[in-house]
Amino acid sequence: MSATAQNLADACFPGFGSAFTMAFQPIVDVARREIFAHEALVRGLSGQGAMEVLASIGSSQRFAFHEACRVKAIEMAAGLGMASRLSLNVLPNDVAGRPECFRTAMAAAEHCNFPVSRLMFEVTEGERTIDLPGLAAIFQDFRHHGFTSAIDDFGAAYAGFGMLAAFQPDVLKIDMSLVRNIHADPVRLAIVRGFVATCDELNIRVIAEGVEMLEEVDALHALGVDLFQGYFFARPAIAALPAVAWGTA
Length: 249
Description:
Strand content: 15-25%
Helix content: 25-40%
Radius of gyration: 17 Å
Largest sheet: 8 strands, mixed, barrel
Structural class: alpha/beta
CATH superfamily: EAL domain
Number of domains: 1
Number of strands: 9
C-alpha cells in the first residue's frame, strides 16, 4: 500500500485515521465455492473489539468516525488486493437524506483504484430508522453506480419487515440469533424458510451470518441459502484477508 493510501483516512478525518484499524471477514458462496464479499469490522490498534472502540467516540463525532472507518477499510482493501466486494457498515440515520457517506466512499475507492462496483453498503440495525422513505430514496438515487445494498442483522432489534417493506436491498443478512442451532429448532427453521421465500420473490439474496457449525450450514443450504458468514468458514483477521476453511460444506 502506498504512503498516500495509508494516510488517506487521517488526511480526510484528522485524528481518526491513525487511531484504529480494520479487520476483514469473508462472506462465502458455498454453491460457487468462492468469496462473495469481505465485511470490514473496526478494531482498536491493540485488537480491541468494535464495541470498545465505538464506546470511546462521542455522539457529535459519530458520523465523521464512521466515515473514517469506511475510508480506512477501502484503502486497506485496495492495499491487500481484495478481489471480492467490500462490505461497509452504515447506520440508517446517517444515510437517509444524506448522500455524503456514499460520495465519500466512492471518492476513496476512486483514489485507491478500488472499483466502486465492488462496494457493498450494509444498513445496520443499531438504531430505529427515523426516515425510512428517505433511506430508500437515497439508495435508489445511487443505485446506478453499481454498488450492492444490504440490510444487516435482519430479525434483530430494528431490522425487520418495516425496513424491508420500505427498502428492498440486493442482499439481506439473517441475524445470528435465528441461525444459531437452526438445525435443531423447528421454529427457527420455519421462520427462516419464510424469510427465504419472501426474498426469492423480491429477488433478494440471503446471507446467513454467525454460522459456527456444519449442521447449521446444511440446514440453511437446504432452505435455499448459498451465502454464509461466520467462524465455521473464517474468523475476522486484522489488516489481512483470512483463508477460508471450506470444510465439507
